[in-house]
Amino acid sequence: MRDTPTTTTSHADHRRVKARLAAALDNGRRWTYTLLDPLDDEAMHRQFDRIMSPLVWDLGHIGNFEELWLLRGLGDRSQHDPDLDRIYNPFDNPRWTRADLPLLRRPEATEYAADIRADALRLLDAIDLDPDVPLLADGFVYHMVLQHEAQHQETMLQALDLREDPRPGDADELAAVDDPRLQLYLPATARTVRQPRRVDDTDIVTIAGGPFGFGAMRGVDVPLGAGPAAREAAVAAYDNERPHHLVDVPTFAIDRFPATARRYAAFVADDGYREDRWWSPRGIEWRNETGHTAPQGWVATADGGWRIRRFNRIDELDPRELVEHISFFEAEAFAAWCGGRLPSEQEWEKAAAHDPATGTSRPFPWGDAAPGPALANVDRALWGPSLVGSYPQGASALGVEHLLGDSYEWTTSDFEPYPGYTTFPYPEYSEVFFGGDWKVLRGASWATRRGVARTTFRNWDHPYRRQIFSGVRVAYDVDGVGRPATPRRH
Fold first, then answer.
1. Sequential DSSP letters for 164-198
2. Which residues pair with 442 in a beta bridge?
3. Are the beta carbons of 327 and 264 closer than 8 angstroms?
4. Are residues 124 and 142 in contact, defined by beta-carbon separation less than 8 angstroms?
5. Beta carbons within 8 Å of 343's beta carbon, 6+ residues apart
6. What Pfam families does this protein's entry cite (predicted)?
7. Domain ranges of the chain
């Protein structure tokens, strides 16, 4: 029996759900084009790195996925073009082959996506969101399509962050260039920071042992007073986040904040990349093979400091900035150097979601409200990670901060199904990845759309990848009085 996401009962409920979905679809598509419109056709069709797709493939794939699930899955529309199913199937076409496919040219891909979207909105207006049909209940399939587009927006940003063109780095100078082909990726020059409060970036929080509710609730189980954001987070959850179940987690400690550039630079300066004792055997192999000696984008300065290259622009690296673009192996070595380890995903979610006062689990660290500018760095609000201590209102009930937004955080957990897992609605999102060489990341990044950011969301990637917006938070085994069991080092 499939895990039915939720049910609503009244016609008025259905109209409200449809109105919210239509607005979200429109908003999501506008966000896609805020990324793509500043690019010329050459950039749209170029493959910046073999591990990333040409951006025009992502655009065509977004349209094809929507055609498959909304128009042909729910409606009676015939295939737009059988060749598109073949070209935009990610499993038949690994990323490094996609530049050689007969892709739709940019105007064609744009028209295709627009055509599909127009029909999808007409279908949404007419369709019955039958609560007894899991795909339709509370608009689950529309949430799936929305998240799919949002996740591709984040993937496209990863690709753009790998672009390396010999261009000047001054934003004002670039903005004044008339030829758009010579301009930097201007959206990223909107990079800004919030002024943080002053904090100790080595502070830790001890989390008492005991059971807590792990994984996404069903929509029908969300309390009526929780509000629409909490309900939508439950409805939108993927199959790999279910079922919600109790997990007993022993007492542990965890950093209140993710690692800062200051702490990570100390690891590098302490020969952290040279000393094998901090690295796993696979990590040593990866480190020696790649030759990496710092996070992606870090540029050493003549005086021994660091600058940061982000979207082809080099800026000063603020030591208070949260680290991103590190692999699992780097995160693991940094944690060992600190005297700790990476958290399991059960530990991470308990720190993020558990409310000891009520015994319940929160959809967002701060409660039931949707992510907003005072709570978390998502939705490209800052075009990069924030400075540590910027979001005190976003703290979890246990006092842990920066859990959603800034950077995904590596965990020790392999990507596996929860007990009682059921594939829904298709195996290619989760099931085919179970048991592979994947490590789970938790949280969300600054590039994540708010509709994807929730405490139960599970991201995953190969342990050797670091093009994703990934950081690290250290956990610790504790002694009898809740202190780290091994000496800490920063």
1. -------HHHHHT-S-GGGS--GGGGG---PPPPP
2. 409, 458
3. no
4. yes
5. 252, 254, 351, 409, 411, 412, 473, 475
6. DinB_2 (PF12867), FGE-sulfatase (PF03781)
7. 11-163, 176-489
d(CA 309, CA 169): 9
Burial class (CB in 10 A: 0-12, 13-18, 19+), 278: buried
**Residue bearing tokens 């239509």:** 22
Pure H helices in 323-456: 328-337, 345-353
β-bridge partners, 475: 254, 341
Token pair for 20: 């919210």
Amino acid at 407: S
> What is the chain's length?
490
Q: How far apart are CA 85 and CA 76, in angstroms?
A: 17
Options 1.20.120, 1.10.3470, 3.30.160, 1.10.8; CATH of 11-163: 1.20.120
Half-sphere exposure of 112 (CA within 13 A, CB side): 26
The beta strands (E) that lie in 415-486 are given as: 439-442, 458-461, 470-471, 475-476
Pick from 360, 368, 132: nearest CA to 231:
368
How deeply is 92 buried, as exposed, middle or buried, from its count of CB atoms within 10 A (0-12, 13-18, 19+)? exposed
∠ CA 290-315-189, rounded to 5°: 110
Neighbour order of strands in the sheet with 298-300? 298-300, 306-310, 313-316
Question: What residues contact 49, with CB distance under 8 A and at least 6 apart?
Answer: 159, 162, 467
* Residue indicated by tokens 């209102």: 393
Distance CA 454, CA 475 (A): 21
Question: First CA to last CA across the chain, in angstroms?
Answer: 49
Q: Position 353: which residue type?
A: A
SS3 27: helix
The pLDDT averaged over each successive group of 10 residues in the chain (490 residues) is 45 86 97 95 94 97 97 89 95 95 98 97 94 93 98 97 64 50 73 95 96 95 89 96 98 97 98 98 98 97 93 91 98 97 98 97 97 97 97 98 98 98 97 97 98 98 98 94 72
Pairing of strands 439-442, 354-355: unpaired
Question: Considering only CA atoms, which of 41, 88, 32 is closest in space to residue 60?
Answer: 88
CA distances, 453 to each of 169, 370, 396, 456 (Å): 32, 9, 14, 9
Name the architecture of domain 176-489.
Alpha-Beta Complex (3.90)
